[in-house]
Amino acid sequence: MYTTPADAPATYSWNDGTFNYTNLSMADCTNEPPGFAATCQTGEANTAFLVGATGEPDYPFAAAEYCDGLTAHGYSDWYLPAQDELDVLYTNKNTGDLNGTFNETGSFPAGYYWSSSESTDFNGRAQRISDGNYDDMDKNEGLAVRCVRK
C-alpha cells in the first residue's frame, strides 16, 4: 500500500457535510482493528461504493470523492483507506518517508483522519494519529484525509 506524502489540503466531511445521515447498505465496522466486517479492511471497495452511491440523501461522500478524484505522482487510482488500512498508516507513521508527515498534535479536527468505514447511520470511523485512538465521528465533521493506493 502507498500513501500520498501529505494530507489533503483541506479537511473533508465523510458525507455531504449535512445532518442528512443514512445507514448505507455497506456492513458497519464497529470494532477496533482488526475489524470483523470486510468494510473494515477494503478501502478500495468502500470508496467505489461511496462514489457510486449517488441516490443516497447524504451524497456526495466528500472524503471518498476527494481520494477517488485525486491524480498525484502519476497515479489516479487513489482511495480513502478503510479502518484497518488507516491503522497500518498509524503503525508506520514514523517510518521512512512517512516520518513527520502526519498531524500528530491530537487536536481536533486536523489530528483525526477519516477512514472509508462506516460505523452507524450517524458515524464513520476515524483515527487520531497521535495515539492511534479510534472514534466514531459524526459524518458531517471536517477531518483530515490521507489517500492510499495499491
From TrEMBL:
Start and end residues of each Lcl C-terminal domain: 43-149
Superkingdom: Bacteria
InterPro entries hit by this protein: Lcl_C
Protein name, as recorded: Lcl C-terminal domain-containing protein
Organism placement in taxonomy: Bacteria, Pseudomonadati, Pseudomonadota, Alphaproteobacteria, Rhodobacterales
